[in-house]
Design goal:
Layout: H1 2-11, E1 20-22, E2 28-35, E3 39-45, E4 48-52, E5 57-63, E6 67-68, H2 72-82, E7 90-96, E8 110-121, E9 124-138, E10 141-146, E11 150-153, H3 160-170, E12 178-189, E13 196-204, E14 213-221, E15 227-233, E16 239-248, E17 251-256, E18 260-262, E19 267-270, E20 276-280, E21 288-295, E22 300-308
Parallel strand pairs: 13-22
Antiparallel strand pairs: 1-4, 1-12, 2-3, 2-12, 3-6, 4-5, 5-7, 7-8, 8-9, 9-10, 10-12, 11-12, 13-14, 14-19, 14-20, 15-18, 15-21, 16-17, 16-20, 21-22
Helix pairs in contact: 2-3
């Protein structure tokens, strides 16, 4: 696995080595069982977690209690008799990254690798060679997928007795101890939130039957580097855009902005007559809504905006 995470790290060399977090919702790990000679079934785990730390330590954790075979009684039996989750609640893949000379992957790039990994499961440690495909999905996301199934033998990880117990309970003639495993692991770069102090954040209630409105705030950069705001989002609306008002030939027109730069120590006002957020497809608003400000690095800052009515102190 050392090779894999060298590739992952250098895929983002331009932004420096940073911490990465496993995206559990976008990741999956599955395994297959063969019973009664030729009956195959596929299963998986619902909860995965993990990280690549800034010191190069890598861990991927599998919550064994989240095993999902689509049959409740079988899930219960696997938890109790196979994995014995009361004593061994999780399995772990771990390694340490060695920063070596690998070509950086561009977004959309794919590279194959053969990884050396250690699986810690049921009180044992097993070395595995994992053939994988490493894909750089975006500037801040990398996917690692098994190129072909990896066979894990139950006896090698102290699970043979559990397999036999499952066979006995199910009344089967046999359950294979050779288990094919496949996975898709998606890692997101952990990006620090923008160094902005936000004050007087407010969103106007839409007028009449309109489904669009505006929002204002003050942003002060408390850091030592410029913050470049690129976008914003909220669950309370379909879309949020950065806008400003410009005067041309005595007429004021609204113009969309690609970005707003806040220099170190500077305060930028988003206020009537100037910069503002345009909010489209507004859904029902409560007294307060959360808007997420996003900078050019992908850093996100959740900001509570109070909702006001026109003429009501906005």
């Amino acid at each position: 696995m050392r090779t894999l995470f060298c590739l992952v790290a250098l895929s983002f060399a331009a932004s420096g080595w940073a911490e990465w977090s496993l995206n559990g919702e976008a990741s999956s790990l599955g395994f297959a069982t063969i019973k009664a000679g030729n009956v195959g079934e596929s299963h998986g785990f619902e909860r995965l977690s993990g990280s690549v730390a800034d010191d190069g330590q890598v861990q991927v954790q599998i919550d064994l209690s989240s095993v999902d075979t689509s049959i409740d009684i079988r899930d219960e039996r696997m938890r109790e008799f196979l994995f014995e989750v009361a004593t061994f609640p999780r399995a772990t893949l771990s390694t340490a990254v060695a920063m070596a000379d690998f070509l950086a992957l561009e977004p959309g790039g794919v590279k194959s690798a053969l990884l050396d990994a250690t699986l810690s499961l049921h009180g044992t440690e097993l070395g595995l060679a994992l053939p994988v495909s490493v894909s750089r999905l975006s500037d801040h996301r990398v996917m690692v997928a098994s190129a072909r199934p990896v066979i894990v033998h139950a006896g090698a990880v102290n699970l043979a007795a559990g397999v036999e117990k499952l066979r006995e309970l199910a009344g089967l003639p046999a359950i294979s101890e050779a288990v094919p495993v496949s996975f898709v692991l998606v890692f997101d770069e952990v990006v620090a939130a923008p160094t902005l102090k936000i004050s007087d954040a407010r969103m106007r209630m839409p007028i009449g039957a309109q489904d669009k409105t505006v929002a204002y705030f003050s942003a002060t950069n408390t850091g030592t580097e410029p913050v470049v705001l690129k976008s914003a989002t909220t669950s309370a609306a379909r879309a949020v855009e950065l806008h400003t008002n410009v005067r041309t030939n005595g007429m004021v027109r609204m113009r969309r902005l690609k970005e707003v730069v806040v220099a170190p120590g500077e305060t930028v006002e988003f206020a009537p007559g100037g910069h503002h957020l345009m909010v489209f497809g507004v859904r029902e608003l409560e007294e307060e809504v959360t808007v997420t400000l996003i900078d050019e690095r992908g850093g996100r800052l959740d900001v509570p905006f109070r909702v006001f009515k026109l003429g009501g102190g906005g």
